[in-house]
TrEMBL record:
Name of this chain's protein: CRAL-TRIO domain-containing protein
GO MF annotation list: phosphatidylinositol bisphosphate binding
Domain CRAL-TRIO as annotated: residue spans: 71-241
Stored SUPFAM superfamilies: CRAL/TRIO domain, CRAL/TRIO N-terminal domain
Top-rank taxon, per record: Eukaryota
Gene Ontology cellular-component terms listed: membrane
PROSITE patterns attached to this UniProt entry: CRAL_TRIO (PS50191)
UniProt xrefs under Gene3D superfamilies: CRAL-TRIO lipid binding domain, N-terminal domain of phosphatidylinositol transfer protein sec14p
Organism of provenance: Rotaria sordida
């Protein structure tokens, strides 16, 4: 790490300590570097991002509490169905690949809040990886099994909150976003996504529409080599269920790291004022 970057890291940590008890944050190098990397080591921007991160989590306890992968039976069940998982191989540019099968859950058994809780828990774990922080993520949003029951849960408010989370709150470097097996029934949701997304993130979206001749996999392979993908996507990596078994073992090993986030947060009565103070100093 360059001297200037190390100085920014130390200054960031000192600032966090000075904000207690309003802001109570994890302050490890690995955690703070996420925010510095995503803001190109602009300290004031990193501070804003961190405040928004904890404010969002404190405001949405339905997604960020009771997430223990070893004790919460609902989380264990969602893990077993391979709703959201990382593939074992990186791209040639060292980017990590994750898959979310957006319709791969029973809406009579699990709510959108249930699978969202699981997805954020896994994202907390995935973000711990240096490769993700440095080189970024490619995400495949698989719509193969999406039905009206799934789509009806995506209200404009929910879509807006999700977009804010991925673009302004979670320090995630998204390189590409692939909508796989894209159905026309999803058009209204995609319209909402694009409406709320920045131009920069909109340009990272790629659609692979449903086809009858199997060319959908060829479309995806233009961006992601088939050797990096599961068999179900025309790849050579093996079956999703086998990949997910290894993934589940790995995330369970990271469980203690993930659940420690429950002890941190921000005083919502003072969060907005703190954010405005940083923005004023930045201006």
């Amino acid at each position: 790490m360059a001297d200037n970057e190390n100085h920014q890291l130390n200054s960031f940590r000192q600032w966090i300590h000075e904000q207690q008890p309003i802001l109570n944050s994890l302050d490890t190098d690995e955690f703070l570097l996420r925010f510095l990397h995503v803001t190109n080591f602009q300290l004031d921007n990193a501070k804003e991002w961190l405040i928004r991160f904890w404010k969002y989590r404190t405001e949405n306890p339905q997604w960020f509490t009771n997430r223990d992968l070893l004790k919460n039976s609902l989380m264990q069940e969602i893990a077993e169905i391979a709703y959201y998982f990382q593939l074992p191989k990186e791209t040639k540019d060292k980017q990590l690949i994750v898959i979310m099968r957006m319709g791969h859950y029973d809406t009579t058994k699990y709510s959108l809040d249930d699978v969202t809780k699981y997805a954020f828990a896994i994202t907390d774990i995935l973000n711990r990886q240096e490769a993700g922080r440095t080189y970024g993520f490619i995400i495949i949003l698989d719509l193969s099994e999406v039905k009206l029951q799934h789509i009806s849960q995506f209200t404009p408010d929910r879509v807006h909150r999700y977009i804010d989370c991925w673009e302004k709150i979670y320090p995630v470097n998204l390189i590409q976003i692939h909508f796989y097996n894209y159905p026309r029934i999803f058009d209204p949701i995609l319209y909402l996504f694009r409406m709320f997304l920045s131009r920069k993130l909109n340009e990272k979206i790629f659609l692979h529409s449903k086809t009858s001749d199997g060319t959908i996999n060829k479309s995806l392979h233009q961006y992601i080599d088939s050797s990096l993908l599961p068999n179900e996507y025309g790849g050579q990596l093996g079956l999703i269920d086998d990949i997910n078994k290894t993934f589940i073992q790995w995330i369970r090993e990271q469980n203690d790291y993930m659940i420690q986030f429950d002890q941190y947060g921000i005083d919502l009565k003072h969060a907005s004022k703190l954010l405005k103070t940083i923005q004023k100093e930045h201006d």
